[in-house]
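S.,

As promised, the zinc ion run. Input:
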Amino acid sequence: MSNTDFSSAEWRPSPNYWNGFDKRDFIVIHATASCGEEYVPNFDASTGKSVHYAIAKDGHVVQYVREANSAWGNCCATGKSTFRQDYNWNKSTVSIENEKSSCDNSEPLTDAQYHSLLMLVRDIAQRWNIPLVYGQQGVRGIIYHHDLDPINKARCPGTFPYATFFRDLQGGPPMNGLPKGATDDGTTIHFPNGLVIVKGFRARYLEMAKAGEVPDDDEPLVNEYPCQPVEKSDPAWWGTSQTNKGSAQETRYFRFGYSPLKGVRVTYVGQELHWYQQQITSGAH
Ligand SMILES: [Zn+2]
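Predicted complex:
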């Protein structure tokens, strides 16, 4: 029978742990900032420290302490942490180190390391029924060491794919899927370039975003504007010249059309571009 909880981990037992645990509420992510030294120490008695797991740059996973016992990786919440400061968090956490050889955890995880991290976190979370969400005091989930110790461990885990981690972990489309920097306030989607998407185009855009169909670098090129025809290249769909009268809006990847009689449509953006391209070509002769 394997000594490890994560089946593919190497078992490198450390004496630094307490038997048992209090709760299993959080998985804590660290990085080693080992400043050129060996990435995965053996956590022998003289170190007085341990974690449950470490992940090497090549994706190799080492386990030091069984998940049913408490490792010594993240004792106490300090400073401005929102976590209780009168409690030893080693008793409610499973901790994971990631190998980083810089002194300040400034380099990103390798692809292999990140892949192993996702597999390991999902595996632990399933065993202890921990939700795959960002945890906080009172909300079970996954947290970073700097959440517990924002002063001394501000750079643990340092550079990390914070923006996509939970999306990747859940293996599905992003929570709202809006492009980078875009926010929806309930009536308007605001973009970093100052432009907005509202009303029917907003509703459709939110649906597409939630389905994971909107690229992260999409943004409006213009605010919604009145036009007739709404779409040059597909008059058959829009019907009469009267129903082909309304408004439109382009983003980098999409074009939205609307008329009061036909409603909202995500237009055939390539077909429409082709129509204009042909006008230019024929005009050049
Ligand atoms: Zn740490």
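The first helix runs from residue 111 to 128. The pocket of zinc ion is lined by residues 30, 145, 153, 156 (CB under 6 Å).

- D.
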